[in-house]
Amino acid sequence: MRLLGLLVASITLTACGNEAPAGSGGGGGSPVGKSYLSVKVTEDRKDKQLAPGTRLRLDFGDKGGLGFNAGCNQMGGEATFDGGTLVMDAYGGTEMSCGTVEDAQEKWFGDFLTSRPTWKRDGDVLTLAGGSTTIVLKLRQLVEPDLPLDGTTWTVEGMVSDRDRVEHFATVPPAYITVDDGRVIGSTGCNQFQGTVAHTATTVPFGALTVTDKACTGDALRLQDGVLARLKGQLTYSIDHDRLRLRRPDGVVGLDLVAGK
Questions:
Q1: Mean residue pLDDT across the chain
Q2: Coil, strand, or helix at residue 228?
Q3: Mapping DSSP to helix (H, G, I), strand (E, B) and coil, where does residue 232 land?
Q4: Is pLDDT of 27 > 70?
Q5: Chain segment 50-101, per-residue pLDDT in tens
Q6: Where are the domains of the chain?
Q7: Quick check: 162 pLDDT over 90?
Q8: Which of 34, 261, 33, 258 minimizes the C-alpha distance to 147?
Q9: Strands 133-139 and 125-130
Q10: Class of 2-143 in CATH
Q11: Is residue 116 a contact partner of residue 86, using CB atoms and an 8 Å limit?
C-alpha cells in the first residue's frame, strides 16, 4: 500500500491592479472553465518529443485556479492574465517521482508556465508561446472524449479519505466495477459483488450489494472494506476521458477509478 499526500493549494486565476480581466488581450475569448491537452509542441521551430504516453494539460477552473499536468503529478498555482500574458510565479502539487524523463518534463513545463508566456485562444485551440517554445493545445474533450459510465470496466486507482489523503493498493489484486443495464457487478480485489443501480447524468445511487464471502487479510481486506464502505448511498460522479470520480455528498470521500483492469 502507498499513501500519497495531496497538496491542496489555493489556486486562483484572477485579474488585479492594472491587469486586464481574464480573457481580454489574449484573443478569441477566455479559456477559464475549460481544459486543454497539447497537440503540438515545438522548440526552436522543431517538434519537441514528449515522454511516451504523455500530453501536457491545462485546467482553468470556473471559479478560478490554474492546474497543470505533464504526465505525472497534479500541479497548480495562483495565476493572472495580464493582457495577452499568462502570469504564474509559483506552483505546488503532489510529489511522486515518475521516472527521469517524466520528472524532467514536469520541471520543464512548470518553468515554461512561470516564464510568463503569451496566450491566444482561437475557437477550440489555445496557443502558449515563450522564448523558443510554442505549445498548441485543444479542448480536452475533443482530444480525449469521455468514455461512457455504462459498459466500461472501471478499476479502483485510489481510495480518497479526505482532501489530503489518498490510499493506493499496488501489491494486491485490483478492485473494479462495471455498471450496465441497471446493474452493477465488480470485485473488491478479493470477493465478487453485484447489485442494482439507476444513475442520472451526475449521480449514481448504490443500494445493498451481494458479496461473496471469501476470507481476506492484510491489504486485500483493507481494500475490500474501503471499497464497500464507499459504494453506499447516493454518490456523485464525473468522467474525464478514461477516469471516473465517485464522491459522497460531501464531495470529498470516495473512489478514483480508471478504465480497464
A1: 88
A2: helix
A3: coil
A4: no
A5: 999 999 999 997 766 799 999 999 999 888 888 999 999 999 998 888 999 9
A6: 2-143, 153-259
A7: no
A8: 258
A9: antiparallel
A10: mainly beta
A11: yes
Residue 251 CA to residue 134 CA, distance in Å, equals: 37
pTM check: above 0.90: no
Report the alpha-carbon distance of residue 177 to residue 186 in Å, rounded. Answer: 4
Can you tell me whether residue 249 is helix, strand or coil?
A: coil
Other beta carbons less than 10 A from residue 212's beta carbon: 11
Cell numbers for 229: 464502505
Q: Return all residues near 32 (Cβ < 8 A) that are at least 6 apart.
A: 13, 22, 23, 60, 61, 62, 64
Q: Do 2-143 and 153-259 come out as alike in CATH topology?
A: yes
> How distant, in Å, are the alpha carbons of 31, 46, 66, 80 from that of 14?
12, 33, 10, 5
pLDDT on residue 80: 85
Grid coordinates representing 108? 520543464
Other beta carbons within 10 angstroms of residue 142's beta carbon come to 12
Dist. CA 113–CA 108, nearest whole Å: 9
Cβ(255)–Cβ(227) below 8 Å: yes
Which triple of cell numbers denotes residue 92? 505546488
Please state which CATH class domain 153-259 belongs to: mainly beta
1 and 168 Cβ atoms separated by less than 8 Å: yes
For residue 144, give the DSSP letter: S
Please provide residue 49's backbone torsions phi and psi, each rounded to the nearest 5 degrees.
-85, 120
What distance in Å separates the CA atoms of residue 215 and residue 171, rounded to the nearest whole number? 17
